[in-house]
Amino acid sequence: MSNTADITREQEFDPARYVFSTAAEPTPIKARTVLPARRENFTVTTADGKRLVGELALPEGEVKATLVTFHPLPTHGGYMDSHVYKKASFRLPALSNIAVLRFNTRGTSSIRGTSEGVFDGGFAEKKDFDAILKFVRERALPNPWLVGWSFGTELVLKYAPEYANEFTGAILLSPPLHRVHPAELDEWNKISNPLYALVPEHDDYLQPPAARERFAAVPRTR
Fold first, then answer.
1. 20 to 30 Å CA-CA from 167: which of 49, 129, 133, 154?
2. Residue 150 reports pLDDT greater than 70
3. For 107-116, how does the pLDDT look when each residue is reduced to its tens digit (9 = 90+)?
4. CB-CB contact of 80 with 112 (8 Å)
5. What distance in Å separates the CA atoms of residue 41 and residue 80, rounded to the nearest whole number?
6. What confidence tens digit (pLDDT) does each residue in 65-76 have?
């Protein structure tokens, strides 16, 4: 990929500031390389009137799939720019024709801005979840996969089943299963959307043996 741009951490996260150039020969992709995409800053308003900020990175051509991301715990540093999601937005549109949607849940700040409201431990965040799924639906973003990381997995597990007809599947990164009740897990047995859980061997909160035991409640989890 020869069209690249590099940014520094201090730069404002503004798509208009990205300047791409075509190199005379292949250019290595470095840690902060941003590949071409159509980047849109967006806002959504929740049912309780909170304005949430986010960014949608779209490929230049056909969109094969959409990653709808939910970030880690904001009280412990999680936000839309958490590194896995930021790298995904920098690379996947150009490399795989995958759109990446990132946003800050209520009360969470990043360079993009601060979402209104206050952190509520996953309860009022249900309204954030609803607003983002509405945005995905209204934009007709194709083949949406819900991707949660840590706290974000709790939102996906708790609230996605009622939207079974509006997303393809879900991917859970380091799910702690702190806030998800057995009855909420059982709701996944009433729908057929694929469910994948990636659990680090030395995770601080839920390691593979315990994860296998907990997710046995949803036998199709992979």
1. 49
2. yes
3. 999 999 999 9
4. yes
5. 12
6. 999 999 999 999
Distance, in Å, from the CA atom of 57 to the CA atom of 55, rounded to the nearest integer, reads: 7
Q: Quick count: other Cβ atoms within 10 Å of Cβ 202?
A: 6
Q: How far apart are CA 190 and CA 125, in angstroms?
A: 23
7 vs 53 pLDDT, higher one: 53
Tell how strand 113-114 and strand 144-149 pair up: unpaired
Burial class (CB in 10 A: 0-12, 13-18, 19+), 15: middle
Distances 150 to 21, 92, 99, 131 between C-alpha atoms, Å: 36, 21, 21, 20
Name the pairing type of β-strands 65-70 and 144-149: parallel
d(CA 169, CA 2): 33
Q: Where are the alpha helices (DSSP H) in 98-219?
A: 125-139, 151-159, 182-186, 208-215
Contact between residue 100 and residue 67 where contact means Cβ atoms under 8 Å apart: yes
- Using a 10 angstrom Cβ sphere, with 0-12 exposed, 13-18 middle and 19 or more buried, the burial of residue 2 is exposed
Domains of the chain in start order, with CATH, are 35-215 (3.40.50.1820)
Give the Cα separation of 58 and 37 in Å (integer). 6
Find tokens 């089943």 and name the residue. Answer: 161
Report the Cα–Cα distance between both ends of the chain, in Å, rounded. Answer: 33
| Amino acid at position 100, single letter | V
Q: From the CA atom positions of the chain, what is the Rg in Å?
A: 18
Could you tell me which residue, 26 or 104, shows the higher pLDDT?
104
Give residue-wise pLDDT tens across range 159-168: 999 999 999 9
